[in-house]
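Take a record:
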Amino acid sequence: MKNGYYLSTYVHIDELAFCFKLKIRHDQNIALWKYKKGKLYLIRYWELERITGFKHHSLSFRNHQDFKMFLNELLGEFNLSLDNIEDIWEKKQFQFTDVLWYNQISYHNLAHIFSALLSNTRDFNNENILVMAVDGGPDSVGLKEYEINFSGVYSSKGVIKGFSQIGSPGPLWSSTKLIFNLEEGSLMALMSASKSQIFNYNKYEYLDIVDFDSAIKAYDVILDICKYVWAMSDSDEGKKYNFWDKRFSVEENRISMVMKVVFELSCKIMYQNIEKFINQFDIDPQKTLFSVVGGFGLNCPSNSTLMKKYKFKKYIEVPCTNDSGISLGIGLLEAYLQNNRFEFCLNTAYYGSKFGGDNYNKLAECQCIKTIESEYSDECIIEDLNKGPIVWISDEMEIGPRALGHRSLLALTRKQDKDRLNLIKGRQWWRPVAPIVLLDKLESWFETDEESKFMLRTYALKEVKENVYAICHLDNSARVQTVSKKDNEKLYNILKMVDKRTGIPILCNTSLNDINEPIINSLERVINFALEKDICTIYLNGKRIVLNLDNKIFFNIAENTRFFYNVSKCKMEELNPYDLDTDELQFYLNTKSLYNFSLNVEKDVRIIKKLFTYKVGKVFGHGKIYTDFGG
């Protein structure tokens, strides 16, 4: 591996997908690396949603020429161009066909695996590590029929001992998201919030979800559970379920009941996976580091349950554990294949774009700004927090879906702060706000001493007090981010100051974005957001900006979408002459067995339509859940 710069990319390039806005890959991302004398450095990590403003960015590039122009614009930040790049890693490399596991497992799944396995090469070379990559399934790009969709790996002191196919709970959660039209975070929160619970539902002791066909079965399983729950009436109280939790609607209670069963099934799948590896490789969990990556790795209650049950030595956290971390995994995977003794450490989440440059020049243009201060007292921050939430922006953006104190809304932990934040974010009243807590005070407040600097664990509070109401789930747990001085000195100092003034080393922390929007990373959007939500104070890289909420002048913002729009009707007719609808086209591009079929051949198009009606109609032809089950 030569010294120099490298790119790893997780994007999609296809003219048909570009023209019809088909969703083939979501949460697309790009990583810039530098390799020098045996050491690998992550220089910058771009998540496309933060550039285009499209949540979970899933738009495709028209062609490779447009993609290269896009890359050159990104590289310009470092005075680089594609001429300075040694290699671009984006798909399986032909030269590694002799590596058995490389050819057996989907590239998507391997990328997830290596994002954790090599996140700290010192751990990789000196510890035993078990990593499991579980999500809703790999994307279809380049996927072969024979490849394994979900896998785990065990390594010992720098040697990969083996991969093995495992089951994934991910399709259970993607099915519930589809059925209930609620995000996984809301479903997890509602699961623990309502106390309504069904009795002894043991119809599904274990589900073996290992590929697309079994993932389809997962949808049917969820529907089956829903039918059972929606058929229950008041007369079944005390027989089939305990009671209706009066704090919630009947519908919310039913969803909570379903999600408790889903969580139990998810744990059983993960237990089976772990037991398989323990038996196969004679693993001692107390001497083994553990990680769950892929979308299911965002399930904090599951992560904590597995750690508590098996008592693994340490949990390996990856901030971009879902598909936003694929480029991270691709880079580490390919570097390992080319030079498996390199050094690397992902010791922070702050590899995203800086908040600076021309942004500061625009402050002077903003007539809604009352004051800008470069110097302010500690008391000033406390006073601002006492008034309500503040916008907090610091240096490089965090990578992954969680705000980790660089693009955040910060607030105290009182009930009124939770209510205000949920109103700002358009969330349900029962949703708590994740806390950030001083690492050295963690054990005083929570039933643990385990670090969780990327907010991927759930911990129980030792004592639920009224002044920390905002951070508690209704089961008295919280999704915690720990902060040390080494991790984030600015945030650490604020927490120390809040602790000194209030006796609580904790703040509420939620992402700086509105509902269905990505985390904000431009000055214009920040100011528009603050004005719209009546937030008067912004802390921006050491500057305290106070807005005049009586003079709301909003910026006109142009979306950065020039690489993803501008489609001619003639081109659409040329690519799709037999007028398949968007769902049929989506099915066509996502189905490996149809790759040899042509949209320009009428006979092929008829087959595509028939297969779509049969396969997709079979899975999603049930109609809306509340219509079918009387809700």
Summary: Residues 27 and 56 are 4 Å apart (CA to CA). The two ends are 60 Å apart (CA to CA).
